[in-house]
Amino acid sequence: MNRNLKWRFLLIAGISIVSIIYIIPSIFGPKLPYWWKKPLPEEKVHLGLDLQGGMHLVLGVKLDKAIENALEATATSLKDGMRREGVIYDYTKRVDDKSVEIRVVKERFVTQVDDVLKDYYNYHISYPYQGDRTKYLLTLKPAEINLIRKSAFEQAIKTIRDRIDQFGVMEPTVAKQRDDRILIQLPGVKDTQRAIALIGKTAQLEFRLVDDEHSVEKALQGDVPEGSQISYERSRDKVTGRITKKPYLLKKTVLMTGEVLTDARMQTGEYGNAHVSMAFNKVGGKLFAQITGENVNKRLAIVLDDNVYSAPVIREKISGGRAQITGSFTDDEANDLAIVLRAGALPAPVEILEQRTVGPSLGKDSIRRGLQSLIFGTILVLVFMVIYYKLSGLIADFAVFLNLLILMAFLAFFRATLTLPGVAGIILTVGMAVDNNVLVFERIREELDLGKTVKAAIAGGYDKAFITIIDSSATTLIAALILYQFGTGPIKGFAVTLSIGLCGSVFTAVVVSRFIYDWFLSKTNITKLSI
Amino acid sequence: MRFFKDTRIDFLGYWKWAFLGSGLLIAVGIASVIIKGPKYGIDFAGGTIVQVKFTDEVDFPKIREGLAEIGLADSIIQNYGPKTEREVLISMKKTSSSLKGLSEDIKEILTNLFSEKGFEIRRVEMVGPKVGEDLRQQGLWAIVFAIMGILLYAWWRFEFSFSIGAILALLHDTLITMGAISLTNREFSLPVVAALLTIVGYSINDTIVVYDRVRENVRLNKGENYIETLNMSINQTLGRTFLTTFTTFLVVVCLFIFGGQVINDFSFALVIGVIVGTYSSIFIASPFVLIIHNWNVSRTRKSAVSSEKSRIAAHTGPKVTTSKIAAMKKAQQSSKK
User: Fold this and answer.
1) Are B190 and A480 a contacting pair at CB < 8 A?
2) Residue-range domain boundaries for chain A
3) I need a surface site. Which of A190, B136, B270, B277 has the fewest CB within 10 A?
């Protein structure tokens, strides 16, 4: 073997061996022996959701709501501030999606109001009535709006990631999409509805007093007293599955929120009924003791996302820094509720923009069908090549085979995802991969027609076909790359396999099959080429 | 084995027939899209689909009744794949952004009707209107960018006339495939767009191979005139064209037959595209190169004549580029004939 051949041989052998090493884990799966796992890769080819089953979700975070919340909070804190300064005011309220309005009774409070307002440097302050200093308009600065949106979005992603981690899904994906969408992929998830409920629940926990001074019945007829509102307790009958709604009249004032929680756990009571027990931090513990101490014999409602879970009567001051949520839970529900409370509330509600779920049986079906078409297609192409090009066809077949090997190894190595369209991409690669060999073979035939020797014909064939191979592969690659750029999930998988297949087929046709010819020529002195 | 050896078919002689045929096909396709309206799948239009496999014979009226009960009377219920699979696709325009989606309602009502063991929900897809709109835009841009990218590459590597021919061939393939999809009542979905892009890639691949030969033959000064050079190039690459088309066709048909319902529209588009893509490289892309070439030649000849006049008038050296000289020579040759 001359030097040149030797180097090429080493290159090809090296690539083949590395490819095989990377494919073996995908074939043997968990049955890999221990001595393999230690030094060698055990990364398997990653199957997409459409092949292994699972759920793909795109959630939209309603960031406008986060701004609304911030404005509402400002309106409330303004009230406190004015009370502190002794300002008599008519109202402080959110007026649109970026401002809060204050109206004081008389202009003589100017200095006090200015004193309160100097803390609100995030707002641009203006006076709707020129010269009249009874009305103030606080408008959020654009930079501040962006900041709120951004941090709410980050917070939402973090919270959702925490929830999913605690839910226990293997290899989940949580990723940003644009600046207000979250892409979530949960492979192998079976109870999709439960997963959605867990991920998407806002989980705004509030402790509020029940308004026992007014009657619920009157309120239901439309006579809702100032400072109170109606909320419902929804409970499901375990036997009939029917949902009943029980109305409560609650004070609007929120005494405490879930922010003070340090822990939440599902626990099972004496009668086997599940409940969630919560632990508060220091501040929360003190606050809770104060609230319960001041309101003995009143009812304290535990409200989550505007649903009343329970409203027990406060018997005595509770100072242990713990509380319980009881209700008609199943174990799963209590468990999920504990997870959600632990991970914290979403800063803004979310909505489902896109949902794609594939059941495991359909995934298996798709794998089977994909493999079937791959095997049939490949066999047909391989057989045809041998019929048409005889021994040279065999060389092309080897090139196709090696190309498939490299493709699979590449997928495993780069942890790329194999999807059903991805399998189609592989199949297409087989059909198109022979193309580069065909280009060469046809050229060699032409050269032979011109009466050249076998050696010259092969050299000439490769030289002349080379530029065509590059041009035709490059243009197809352009289309594939653009597809990758624009595609989603499964389609990206198609673009990946197609692109790798294209590159691999250039390598196998230009380097590998050429090497086989050259090696043959160096060994034997043939005068007639089997092509 | 060798199917095409030393063929001398006058492909360009058929260009009028080819254009007529292609024009008709495109017209029929466009007419179908216009008359039926473009049929978007839920990827692009937004909506919900639920794929259900039943254990027993599918009871369509019962399903329909159940759906009507929960206010989904206008859903479309159809067999998915062969009847023996007992698989049904329920699709509706409605979407729900709330956490308890429509699919959950459907599952509940089906459980009431057929019990839990009587069916299995195998796939749910819900695409909200916002996302649908985005995906539609993305799909369109993807095709536009792919065509532009290829145009630029072909322009860089070949002549401008070549890239125009290539792009027209691509448009031709895309339009005919879209027409075929509309005619067979299939939907435009993300996989179909992927297939269209693949066809674009495949078709250009084919065209480039022919062009490469033309470029080479022009360089070697083969052929009596431009038509002959083109024809010769097509004939020389005919073996390869046939073979690659055949192997690609084989695998695509395998995909169409065995690949299953989920990617059926995708495979169908590929089957059509492979055929059309090959045809267009020979009968659309090449004739356009000739047409543009002839047009260029007649233009250069005119400007050559006028520049000759101005040279005599001004007695200054003409700025005729080498390519123009080559074109002038060619023009003289063809005018001799």
Assistant:
1) no
2) 3-48+360-523, 65-145, 201-357
3) A190
